Amino acid sequence: MNPESAEIVDLLNRYKSKLPSKLRDPDNYLQHGGGGGTSGGMDVVDAKIAAAEARTDAKFAEMMGQLSLMRAEITGRLDTMNVRSAHVENSTAGIKMTVILTAIAALGLTVAVMAFGSQWFSLGMDAQQVSQRAAQTAVDSSKTRIDDLDRKLDQLLQVTRPRPTSP
Questions:
Q1: Domain assignments of the chain as residue spans, ordered by start
Q2: Is-contact 74 81, C-beta < 8 A?
Q3: Computed from CA positions of residues 20, 25, 27, 32, in that sequence, does the dihedral angle turn out positive or negative?
Q4: Closest CA to 66 of 29, 19, 26, 21
Q5: 86, 93 in Cβ contact below 8 A?
Q6: Which helix (H) or strand (E) segment is 20 a member of?
Q7: pLDDT tens sequence across 8-59
Q8: Which value, in Å, is the radius of gyration of the alpha carbons in the chain?
Q9: How far apart are CA 140 and CA 135, in angstroms?
Q10: Fewer beta carbons under 10 A from the terminal one: N or C of the chain?
Q11: Which region holds residue 158: left if phi is over 0, alpha if psi is between -120 and 50, else beta?
């Protein structure tokens, strides 16, 4: 039994317990009620029948009122459950799409890596060799410039050094 059904059954049992004992067990009502004899004539019998009918009508009206109350409460609870389930469906719709798209993207990425992984690795090796050659060329060209600057600096220092004066 799901939780909603159990809750409705519990609700019905609570309302049943609120009914008078005569209505809960009609056999008991018939065994202990009515009668009393015919000591007062037909008017008394008619009055007793009318009183019994009035009590029955009152109990029936009370029972109908309680049934109406139960129906209203059950309908309200069902409406609440419908709203909640609609909210859950709406809130999970975006999550479902996100999960599906993520799975597709992961599958596509896996296929791409498996198909082109070896080419990417060889391209990486070529790129490393190219970058090493470029760095070596830059170092070689700058080394000659640095050597030229060192010679010019030495010449400048020799020219600007004070000469000792003789006495």
A1: 3-117
A2: no
A3: negative
A4: 19
A5: no
A6: none
A7: 777 777 777 666 555 555 555 444 445 544 455 688 888 888 888 888 888 8
A8: 51
A9: 9
A10: C
A11: alpha
At a CB cut-off of 8 Å and minimum separation 6, what does 8 contact? 74, 77
Tens-place pLDDT, residues 84-123: 888 777 777 777 788 888 889 888 888 877 777 666 665 5
Q: How many residues comprise the chain? A: 167
DSSP 3-state assignment of 54? helix
User: Which whole-number Å values give the CA distances from 43 to 10, 34, 39, 129, in the listed order?
Assistant: 46, 15, 10, 123
CB 23 within 8 A of CB 65: no
Do residues 35 and 29 touch, judged by C-beta distance below 8 A? no
Task: Judge contact between 20 and 59, C-beta under 8 A.
Answer: yes
Task: Tell me which residue has tokens 């519990």.
Answer: 10
